[in-house]
Specification:
Largest sheet: none
Strand content: under 5%
Helix content: over 70%
Structural class: mainly alpha
Number of strands: 0
Number of helices: 5
Amino acid sequence: MTVANWCIAAACLLPILVELTPKVASFKGKDRYDNAHPRDWEGRQSGWMRRAHAAHLNGFEALPLFIAAVILAQQAHANQDRIDILAMSFVLIRVLYSIIYISNLATLRSLTWFAGVGISLAILAMA
């Protein structure tokens, strides 16, 4: 399995980890996470917890382009080292994106989002 393939796995797990953050943190508050009614609980959140959920959703939205780009570039026998470097960059950008989103830095968040899309497009251009 290539580094880029491992990056696909990491990119798929990242939104789940981002979503777990407010759920775990809620155990210290009075509005504890309710696994019986998770959508109701998410709807009541505000501040960083609501932004974490939005970052979680955006993480899944970013996946199709990234996954397709990696697979297509590998099928085209593009330079694997370059695919790997770009894939690792994508994962790093998505980690930063989640932190920036949760931190409520809107302009930096948008710039980071564009960087992630740019990396996916750069990989796709190798196909």
